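Quick start: what a row looks like.
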Amino acid sequence: MTLEPTSAAIIQLAWARRLGLDDDAFANAAARLTTSAADPGDLGNRITRVDDAARSLVFLRLFGVSALVGPQWALDAAAAIPDTELAQHVTLLTITRSHGGHGLGSSALFFADDLPLQQPSEELTVSQGNPEAISLEGLCPPDDVNEVGLQGLEHRFTIMHPEEDQPTPVACGAYSEWEGILANMGVLVAPPWRRRGLGTLAASIAAHEALASGLTLQWKADVSNTGALAMARSLGFATGGLHASVILG
């Protein structure tokens, strides 16, 4: 699916606030590119913000406009590096090695302002409780748990499988609100229940709850997580950019 033109502006506003930039920073940069026939990869068009107290270095490429936020020494080191290289986690690690840069990685960004509704083939029980989400995390590999971060997504919708003694959590779609504008989503599925469409269904449930609350959907997936990337596309999300970051010291 494609985004409405106004949705891109809303997404840019949310990220500008998230990065501590002026509300119109991305819109103004995009307008300059449109009117000047400049190369979108021109280093002079990159938005930067110095934050010498930052505990991370963040690079964002959003709808053709890039931004870099971090300490002055990091911005100086990145000044001559093209966006295509900064989007790679290894480049940020190289820049920050002497300052203890580590972790986080690079993620693809997907967005949606509407999605087709996924209908279950049978009646399901969906829990919005925290204990069910915690139980589901206990059934999943730690790497998956850390990447999705259900505990940081306050709105959780866990699909429960009926058992004779105790219902079992099998999949959870969740989101947190960013700047009152975006619903940053995540999906976790217990390994025995994967490849059965439950992740897609859980994501659809959470997505439509977020849309009903007036939020625009955001899906962030590690660039190496082929399953998450494929799920975003199958749900109908549109590609919007790349996000890369490292923790400092």
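That is the whole record. The two ends are 41 Å apart (CA to CA). The longest strand covers residues 102-112.
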